[in-house]
Amino acid sequence: MAATLFYLDPLPEPGDTAVLDGKEGRHAATVRRISVGEPLVLSDGRGGVAEVEVTAAAKDRLEAVVLARRTVPAPKPAVTVVQALPKSDRSELAVELATEAGVDAIVPWQSKRCVARWDAKADKGVARWQAVAVAAAKQSRRAYVPQVDTLHRTSDVLDRVRDTTARGGVVAVLHESATTPFAELPLRGADEVILVVGPEGGLGDTEVDALIEAGAVAVSLGPTVLRTSTAAAVALGAIGVLTGRWNDQPLH
């Protein structure tokens, strides 16, 4: 059975004592009821991983000796999802699924047809998405927690597309009317990939045209129309198969 994963930053050196307290300590000691002698895996969420053994357990607190440390290489290509804001009931689902599928960064986008509006609560929305990403990363045993960027307007997204393509990156606009198959993207030779996902009502023609003019490619993921909350996860799965991103061994 795989050891339970918890996040701790910074990670102590081998031989030192790691202390889990606060929210993580409460979850470990009170919810999971982890006891002395049990093995755990700790990560700093930035690729650092430590194998530890619990030496003391109390309410809302665990102590563990660090047995070994290592660094997990970041997956290549790095994948960022530019996610148009879904409706409230699907907003967190989009982040959760993308994180479980391996996304490296998430950019919330206030696109033209978004029903959801973050105008007066952008900071709160970003914080909530980040919390969802942390929880999903822990559940899926990831050494890297995806970072949620600030709220982007369309002009911000276009700037990001231009910068990425200028560096040789690939930017794919997931669009049900596109004629270029996703599998034709030059993914294996890219260091970074951006997936642009529209809102429930779809991207407007002017938005698609502007993204293509900035260097993006409109692609189809298949014969079915996907929800905005699931499209990124499906695309990430395809990238995992079409590149070497899924070749790494899971955390133990």
Automatic annotation (TrEMBL):
Residues in coiled coil: none
Keywords: Cytoplasm, Methyltransferase, rRNA processing, S-adenosyl-L-methionine, Transferase
Keyword Ribonucleoprotein: no
Main location group: cytoplasm
Gene Ontology annotations of biological process type: rRNA base methylation
Annotated EC: 2.1.1.193
Span of domain Ribosomal RNA small subunit methyltransferase E PUA-like: 20-67
One Gene Ontology cellular component annotation held by this UniProt entry: cytoplasm
Designated name of the protein: Ribosomal RNA small subunit methyltransferase E
Organism of derivation: Rhodococcus coprophilus
Lineage: Bacteria, Bacillati, Actinomycetota, Actinomycetes, Mycobacteriales
